[in-house]
Amino acid sequence: MDKITERLAEIVGKDYVSTSAEERFIYSRDQGVQQPHMPDYVVLPDNARQVQEIIHLANNDSIPVVPMGGGLVLSGLTIPLAGGIVLDMKRMNRILEVNESSHYAVVEAGTSQGMLDAYLKKHHPRLKHSLPDAPPAATIAGNIAIHGSGHLSQSEGGFHSEMVTGLEVVLGSGEMVKLGSCSTVPGWFSRAPLPDLAGLFLGWNGTTGVITKVGIKLFPRPRFHDVLIYMTEDIDIAPDILFRIIETEVAEDINYALSPKPDYLNGFQMIVINLVANTEIELNMKKKIIRDALYDYYKTKESGFMPLPPAMKGDFLEAPQKALSKFADVKKGGGFEYVGAIMPVEKIPDACREGVRITDRYGITYSLGARIIGRGHSAMFFFAYPFNRADTQDIEKVSHALEDTNAAALKLGGIPWKTEVSGQKLILEQMEPQTSSLMMKIKSLLDPNGIMNPGNWEVK
Amino acid sequence: MDSEYTDIIHRCFRCGWCKLPTTYQDFNCPAYLKYRFESFASGGRMWLIRAWINGEIEASERFNQILFSCVTCRNCVEACALPKIKDKLVDIFIAARQDLVDQGNIPPAVRDYLKAMTVNGNPYKMPQEQRGAWAEGLNIDRYEDQEYLFYAGDVGSYDELGMKMARSTARLLKSAGLSFGILAEEETSDGNDVRAAGEKGLADYLAQTNIETFNNKGVKKIITLSPHGYNAFRNEYPALGGQFEVYHYTQVLNSFLGDKIHTGRYEKKVAYHDPCYLGRWNQEYFAPRRILGSIPGLKLAEMDRNMNNALCCGGGGGNFFTDILGTGPDLSSRARVREALSTGAEVIAVACPQCYKMLDDAVKDEGVQDRIRVSDIAGIILESGMK
């Protein structure tokens, strides 16, 4: 055992440090097409104090540190590009507080979406949080750190990073800080009215510090739930249809999807509208409001609501949906690239066309779509490319498609989401120089020795 | 490894659905719960097996620990998102173990277990002549031509708690007037856990020995104490020529309630722990619950993870004998005791001798003997005071 391993074992316990080939293999890669890079150590801290000690050690010995939540980012953000320590946060999964009156929960950074959902259902059944489309093993902290979105992002305030009410963070320099109301008073209810420092850790891919606790907004959990699906073959009417649905103010979640599978749906745009209500009367009224809003379109018989058999409806009412993971197996190959781009809503038709062009170019399959964020303030567009891990040509094609997609997203006026290093470089090249310069100054301040997830958000 | 498996093993994309029960409360895999590294989750195990097949990693001591810490509980199978491969997950882990056994590259604890099974015919290294010692004083006949064979199995024959459970069950069967006998020293291990540990050859040999004995004696119907034996007789033996009518003892007792067995009152809150090999492996969730639910005064509590989502005690897949999972507060048996306590239960009811021992030890390790205890279902019926 080398001295670093010994010291890490003193901090977290010997059972929670590994330098074995097996852990180094697993933590060197994710499900996407990014090349693997081996960590030297995989470490599982149990509390924030241990995280702080690890960061101090890493600073002293110039060891890179890569924080990891659920490990489901798919774009290599937790692959240790320069080796060092992968900090798997999932032992820190305690739910520390739920404040029903002020609608927030405080959780440790390794808490999974599924565990919080189950906990709320049991102990606070009138409340829920926004669940991403990722599997339930995805963590709350990992998702807010990449500006993820979920099933309440349309109706309840935007990206999950916007639902953060407070953070506890260990900076790259080793200090532990609280951000938001919890920095000043006991409650974790709000980031306002203080200077908003939480943004220094949201969207930074773990390059400024390690999030150790999160305060997250909770929302009412109405008892009744239903889904409507509107279908059209006319790609250009999608923005207006979306506008009309948003305008009704009754849709909890609005998703737009386009997929060549199954064959009989090829060419159709599906707009999935989730509705919730406290009574059946309210639910039926909301469905009527949506139908009325789209009457001008469906009276022409060229588009309309899709009849949904109960079994199929069940899939659309799930959150998160297992069907999305099933889609990842469409190539029967265990590889999945999920490229996102946050963009203006009106760009959805062009993004769809571009996505289809790219996949045609490389002969790969796809699923395209978008979630409406914050009542139409933007869209989280996704390009999902499953591939076969056992087929190197398939991997190469998807890698090229990924590069083209990032470039196309920027050209369309969107910004690639949780993008891998090459995508980050594209963004930085296009970014105002003063903005990228400010980013680097902030990063130098918070992580003076450059140990935090090196390779990400770097300007050479 | 079987090409059926090598053709699909790369399809697992480690989405992580398998880590949580379908109700999401907490980690559901005893090995992942204990070790917490991604490598010990089912997805990690799948990727490592593929890497091993591809020559990217070697079968090291750590690799063996990762593979043999799987308790074959099938919780991952319940939760996996991919319908075409989910049913094969545990089969793939067992097949990989089998390859390691064939190569002679296994953890010392597994080697010792398999050696004891080969040399002594049981994992306790006890004399074969003592297999029937559990029945002493009960006046139970040897099997000749009775309607049922009552099969005690390794744990029921040699473990203190297992023997107690076997005695309770036999007393109830007798009091119900059931025509049954036992094999005592003629009984052979069912081989279920040997197969799960990857030693197919020995498991087949044990099965064939039992099948020959059963056939020679004209056995048609078997009642098993352990869900592990129940699984082997029901799902493995038919392919080897052993066709028997197989019942778990809770199924038989359930059929006697209100007719041949009349319980007394049991004024306690009881949480039932589903054994993996009765529940997920054989879909029997209700017979034990019906028994407990029919006992006057007994308040049946459900743990958060129950039925197809029940957390395993950690004793399956040979771990009961090899103890690869070791000790510590993150053992699934200890987590299960805490889960039972959170329901307010005073008793954890079990229907498997392995669960009995694992959870009984965990109650002691948690230091909560004054708050909760473990009892098997037959024991609870007897405690209630038979009418």
What does this structure look like?
The complex is a heterodimer of chains A (460) and B (387). Chain A is of the alpha+beta class and 460 residues long. Chain A is 32% helix and 23% strand. In chain A, a hairpin with a 4-residue loop joins strand 8 (164-171) and strand 9. In chain A, helix 1 runs antiparallel to helix 3 (48-60), helix 11 packs antiparallel against helix 12 (392-412) and helix 12 (392-412) packs parallel to helix 13. Chain B has 387 residues and is α/β, with parallel strands linked by helices. Chain B folds into three domains: 3-106, no CATH class; 122-255, Rossmann fold (3-Layer(aba) Sandwich); 262-383, 3-Layer(aba) Sandwich (Rossmann fold), CATH 3.40.50. In chain B, strands 2-1-3-4 form a four-stranded parallel beta sheet. In chain B, strands 6-5-7-8 form a four-stranded parallel beta sheet, with helices on both faces. The model of chain B has no long low-confidence stretch (mean pLDDT 97). The interface between A and B is large, with 43 and 38 residues.
Quick synopsis:
The complex is a heterodimer of chains A (460) and B (387). With 460 residues, chain A is of the alpha+beta class. Chain A has helices at 3-12, 21-26, 48-60, 113-123, 140-145, 238-248, 280-293, 295-298, 310-317, 322-327, 348-362, 392-412, 421-430, 433-446, and strands at residues 17-18, 41-43, 65-68, 85-88, 95-99, 104-108, 127-128, 164-171, 176-180, 209-217, 219-220, 224-232, 253-258, 269-277, 303-305, 334-343, 367-373, 378-388, 415-417.
